[in-house]
Structures are given as C-alpha cells and as structure tokens.
Amino acid sequence: MNSSPAASPPSDHSAARRAFTWVRAETADWLRTEGERWIYVVRAMLAAFSALWLAFRLGLDSPFTALATTIVLALPSSGMVLEKALHRFLGTLVGCAAALTLVALFPQSPTVLFLGLALWVALCTGGAAMHRNQQSYSFVLAGYTAVMIAVPSVDAPSGVFMLAVTRVTEVCLGILCSAVVHDVIFPRRHSRAVMRTVQARYTGFIDFCRQVLAHRITPADAELNHLKFAADIAALESGRAAAFFETGHSRSQTRQLHAFNAAFMTALTTFYTLHRLSHRLRMAGDGPVLALVAPMYAHLAQTLDEELSAARLAQMRTTLTSDIAIARAQLASGPAVTRAQQIDFDTAVELLERFASNLADFAALYQGLAQQKRQQVSDPGAYSPKTPPAIVAASGFRAGATLLVTAAMWYWLAWPGMVNAVLMATIFCALASSSPRPTAMVQQVLIGFLLAIPLDFITEFFMVAKSDSFFPMMLAALPLFAFAAYLSSGQRWAGVGIGIGMFSATLVVPANMMRYDVESFVGSELSLIMGVVVSYLMFKVVLPEHTMGHRGHVAAALWREAQNACGKGLYRLKRRFDNRVRDLLSQLNAAAGPAPNAETRAVVRQGLTLLELGHAVIELRQLIAASHAGDARDSLQVVLRELAAYLHAPSRTSGEAALQAILQAGSSLRAALPDAQHERRARLNMALTDLHSIYTSLLDQLSTGEPRVSTSAP
C-alpha cells in the first residue's frame, strides 16, 4: 500500500504568509529610506512648535528666535543635535558678552563700534575656518550673535542688555526643546552610524588592499582611493565627536575609535609605500627581486581573502617569516645581485613585515569595536583638522569686510530694513567660511529664500492671518515648515530647505503683538535676500581662490608639513604629521567633488609622495635619537640637513645635494653593518630602508618633467 503524501499547508495560509513577508520587507526598506526622512520631519516639527508655543506662553519678545533655533538644530541623530546645541549655547553666551563689551566701550561712536564688530567677526570667522568641526559653530555664533545684539543697539545703547538677555533666553528655549524631542521621541543614535562607518572603513580597506595586490587597480585609481580614505578619516572623527554626547558612549570607546583611526592611517601609509615600491619594481622589470617577493605578496593576498581572525593573522606572520628566510637563502645562493636590487629586496621585506604588524593591530581594534569589547589602548590623540593659514586669514578678512560694506550701505541708503541685510550677510559669510564650495552653499540658501517668498506670502496673509489661536496658526504654518524640513533632510537640496526654513521662521511666525503689514513684509524679504546676495558676491569678488581645499593652498601646506617633519619635536610627531597630511587631502577631496581634474590629481600624487618621505624622515630622526655617536650617525644628520634645505627651497641643486648625502649615508651604514651587534644591525637595516624610501621619493619629485639625476640606490 502506498504511503499517503505529507500534508501541505493550506494555500490561503501560504499566500497570506507571502503577502505578510512582502509587506514587511517593503516596510523595512521604506523605513530605511523615506521613513527615516519623515521621522526626521516629525521630530523637527515637534521641536519647532513646542518651542514656539512655550515662547508665546512665556511672553518672549521674538518667538521666532526659538523656532529658528530648532530649525538650525534639526539634525538626523540625537548625538549631532546635542553636540551642536552645546556649541550654539556657548557661542551665544560669548557673542552676547562681546556685544555688551563693545557697546559699553563705544556707546556714542557708531563708526568705532562697527570697526570693533568687524574685527570681532573677522577673528571669530577665522577661528571657525581653522577648526572646521562643531567647535567652529561656536566661533560662528560668537561672531554673528554680537552683530545681532550690537547693531540694533546703535541708536539705543541702553537697551543692549535686555536684547542680550532676551536672545539668550529664546535660544536656550529652542535648545532645550530640540534636545528633549530629538533625544526622546523616535531617537536615532549616532553611535550606530559610527559603527556602520567603522565596518565600511574596514571592509573597504581590505578590499582595496586585495585589489592592489592582485594588480586590478591602476596607480591613478589608487591615489583617488587614498583621497577618499582621507575624507573617511575626517568623517569618522566627526561622527565620534557627535556620538560622545549620547548615553552609553564611554571614554574607553572614544579611545578605541581614536586608536582605530590612528591604526588605519598607519596601515594605509605603510601599504602605500609598499605599493609604490612594487609598482616601481614592475615598471623597471626587476625580475630577480620580484621573483623573490612574489610568494610573500601571494600569501598576503590569500590571507586578505579570508576572515582576519587573530589566529589567521598570526599564521600569516609565521608564513611571512618563513617566506623571508627562504627568499634570503635563495638570494645568497643564487647569482650575485646589484646593490640597488639588494636594497630593493631588503626594503620590500621590511615593509611587508611592517604592514603585517600594522594590519594585525588594525584588525584587532576593529574586532574589539565590532564585538563591543573594551580594549586597553593608549590614546594616540584625536584626529585634529588644520586649515592653511592663508585661508584662515582670508576667511576672517572677508567676513569683516562684508560687515563694513553692508554697514556702509545701511548708512548711505538710510533704509531701516537694511539692518536685516547686515545680519544676513554677516551670518552667511561666517557659516560658509568652512565650506569647500561656499558660493554653491550660499547659492542654495538664496534659492531657498526666493522659493519661500510666494509660499510665505500665501501662508502669512491667507492662512496665518485668519487664525485666532495657537493651534490653528500651527496648522496653517505646518505644511510650509514640514516641506522645508523634508528638503533639508536630503543632501541634494539641504541648503534650499535650510533657506526656506530660516526665511519662513523670520517672516511667517507671528509675534505676541502681531501686525499684518504687506509693505513691512515686502521690505523685510527684500532686505533678507539682499544680505544673502551680498555674501554671495563677497565670496565671488574678495579673494575667491582663498577657499577651503583650494589645491594651490593645499599643495603649499603639504610642503610645510614635510618641512615640519624635519625639524619639529619628535613627541607624537608621526601621528601629528599623518593627521595634518590626511586632513589636507580631505580638504582637497571635498573641494574637488566626485571627479577630480588632472591638476587636483597631481597635488594628490605630490601629497602622497611627501607623506611617504615625511614618514621615512621621522623614523630616521627617531633612529638617530636612539643611536650613539659615529660616522653612521653623522652621515644621517647630514641627510636631514640637506633634505630640510631642499624642502625649504626646492631646486634642482638642493635636490641633487640631498641625493648625494643619501648615497654617502648609505655607504656609511653598510660599512658599519659587519661589526654591528644584533640590535644595532636591525636599526641600521631600518635606516637603510628609510634612506631608500627618501631617495626614491626625491627621485619622483625631481624627475617630474626632468631626467633623473642618478639611478643607483643608497
């Protein structure tokens, strides 16, 4: 008798299950994309109208200030909101104190008062351009808050104190509402975004190394990858700073993220130097050396294809040690090689061992972060951005000049509404000073202002004017502010959304004693737009090439950092040097956009060459500091002097002098090798590797458009 078939679930149940699975998948996908944006809009509107309602209940003079504060503080995660809120509070306090001081010093001298304000705004804007993080927002606020308090007090200095107190109260109200709403209602923790960034960084770097070792990526593409990695380093530090303000983020996690960033930069630099050496050997057709190191590259690539557990990395280093021993035996028993080939082989071995160690440290830190394990790490110091001094000075000068120009326009036009133009021009000159494309940023905000004109007019005179209490007024204004928040939640139209939100907060929100005056409305909107136009023109006219990430300033700053590697104090010098160079490349990446041109790529190549050279110089200085007096030490000091002279004043003559000093130092080091003890022999070999890196980097610099001056290795 045949067995009966197994019972199958009813078709209606399986269809329902499929439908439920489809709905759940679609809902999850929507929540990850559009859902996130609408949750952001809900939070922003709750914070905005909560602050506005409280401002009305407390009888504040300018309720729109509290609303505008929540619009400015509306950010995707609670950590970002709390971080920006703190810096807004500090900047507001300092700005109010500066305004009170200036008005008290020059109560009857408007001209001197405006000169003092211009100097203050210039200093604050320069500070903002120097820091380029949320700390810069404190500088921006301190600058334009002083203008917002002092300028209306020109004709009535006795009221400046009440203006300052009211400003602080209204801003604090907006800060409190934003902090509570974004941290309690549908909170989005920035620490999760930081961990996603860490994971993407780790997988991206491993994949990049795998492609390079498999020769599936060109040197030009590798340089662009380094440019993007530099931007990733800055982004991770910015995200870590925001996550620090959230509950559950401990000081130990901060130290781990600092160490992760530092380990990544170290591994990336070593791998770049290793890649450059491999590429030079392949281009030169150096068969014997390539044949010896090929098994090491193959085993390294094989390891990167697998999970980098501690056991696997230990096995990789054991295999590498065995490969090196075999290669050295083959080199000793085979045909004689030239001095240059011997140095190339020793350098490749040293770099492979160094990269294996760097990779193990990097993977261990990643595993600790991914598994949320607390690791005892020495804090290498935070990644610190640094802007070229010329751009800092230009940003301050531009902001101060903008204030004086608009103040002069106010005086000659004798138009009371021009005070809004003074404020808007000052605000956006300060805000855009840290942007790599300030004109594009101000242009987006201007588009938002222009789009807001008809929307605000309709909302103000056809909807809000008919409201007889707070809640009908809120319903009338809600679509406009929700539309602005939705636009600001996406990268493409964020500036337009911010422009609509700020413009609407200034014009639409009624005061406690409201007057619906069309003529005043039009005058206010014209003055606000005029201020943004003036700031746009100032960026176009006043020192237009002195903007963040301009390749000329970045190139000059890279040379200065290489000079510092030769002379600055050795304490944490390597970390500071790496930070500075990566930060400059990050600025270059932000200004270049998605498709860097040939000139930008040339600066990237130069920056990476100087990075390789600087690392070798710092390591050489550390070896000199730990060595005893003798011919080898003296010859290395001569190399440093000649190299510093070349970096200070690059020329063919100084470059050749540095190359000759390197060759002589190489001879002195090799002469000291036979009688050296094991520890000193290791240091001498490291010094030879560093000399080789410096030598080839100098050749790359000098051979640009010129024949090489020598082909022998140190």
UniProtKB/TrEMBL annotation:
GO terms for cellular component: plasma membrane. Signal peptide: none annotated. Keywords: Cell membrane, Membrane, Transmembrane, Transmembrane helix, Transport. It holds the Pfam family FUSC. The chain crosses the membrane at residues 38-56, 62-82, 89-106, 112-130, 137-154, 160-186, 417-433, 445-464, 470-487, 494-514, 526-543. GO terms for molecular function: transmembrane transporter activity. It is a multi-pass membrane protein. It is found in: Cell membrane. InterPro entries: PHBA_efflux_AaeB/fusaric-R. This is FUSC family protein.
